[in-house]
């Protein structure tokens, strides 16, 4: 069925009050969006920062009385913020669609490097002779659409992984570990703080017809001490800096390291954190994000 949307453009300090107003008016759901183009890449732990210009959207059933609702919002604003002008308030009808089909139509097979494709399960592989990783978008991060994942997949495709032991640290959907296995690695582990990510990794392994004993998953505190030939971690700069001694200890001498989830401005702090153990290569960049790779010194 179609829905009625009411959008209020405001600032973070007033957002919670307008959320309460929309809920009091009977909306079914409230969402927050960036009104401009102000990315928030790495908020402090335990915080949920909003953008300087935030759009709050209330979703209502179409039989809802629009005029009465707008009047309620205006009166609520006057009571809460008598000295503040009424913000921009817009309404529109959201037409009914097959949202699952629309989402599926916009997710297509993607190629990374020379050999590797990531394909949703509802599409035929464009090149049946290529290495095709079947993966559907889900609750765990990592489908190949984000530049950091793409950077890691392209790097994996360029490596000789035959018979190697690979660690995917911060595995999310398991896309990097599974890609490594399909590209020749003998075994892998996935590590993540989220049990849901560990389950997603195992599910995606089976989706790619791989035996379940070549990739095991662990919470960080249970990570085995075996040294990896290749360790790949697509997380964020803060955790990567904090984890530097741990990750370095998981890589064998001569082993390879690949780090992403990093902005260009964060290159120096990552180099400083890892250069005591690794000879680091020049960075690769995509859309403002970077990948740092290297090999472990003896």
Explain this structure to me?
- It is a single chain.
- The chain is an alpha/beta fold.
- The protein has 2 domains: 94 residues, 2-Layer Sandwich (Alpha-Beta Plaits); 152 residues, 3-Layer(aba) Sandwich (Rossmann fold), CATH 3.40.50.
- The chain contains 9 helices and 15 strands.
- The strands form 3 sheets. Strands 8, 9, 10, 11, 12, 13, 14 and 15 form an 8-stranded mixed sheet that branches. It has a 4-stranded antiparallel sheet with strand order 2-3-1-4, with helices on one face. A 3-stranded mixed sheet has the order 5-6-7.
- Strand 5 and strand 6 form a beta hairpin.
- Helix 1 packs across helix 2.
- The model has no long low-confidence stretch (mean pLDDT 88).
Which helices and strands, and how do they pair?
Elements lengths: L2 E8 L1 H13 L4 E6 L19 E8 L4 H15 L8 E6 L4 H7 L4 E3 L3 E4 L11 E4 L12 H12 L6 E5 L5 H8 L4 E5 L3 H13 L7 E4 L9 E7 L2 H6 L1 H6 L1 E13 L3 H8 L3 E3 L3 E3 L2 E8 L2
Parallel strand pairs: 6-7, 8-9, 8-11, 9-10, 11-12
Antiparallel strand pairs: 1-3, 1-4, 2-3, 5-6, 12-15, 13-15, 14-15
Helix pairs in contact: 1-2
Outline of this structure?
The chain is α/β, with parallel strands linked by helices. It has helices spanning 12-24, 66-80, 99-105, 147-158, 175-182, 195-207, 237-242, 244-249, 267-274, and strands spanning 3-10, 29-34, 54-61, 89-94, 110-112, 116-119, 131-134, 165-169, 187-191, 215-218, 228-234, 251-263, 278-280, 284-286, 289-296. Helices cover 30% and strands 29% of the residues.
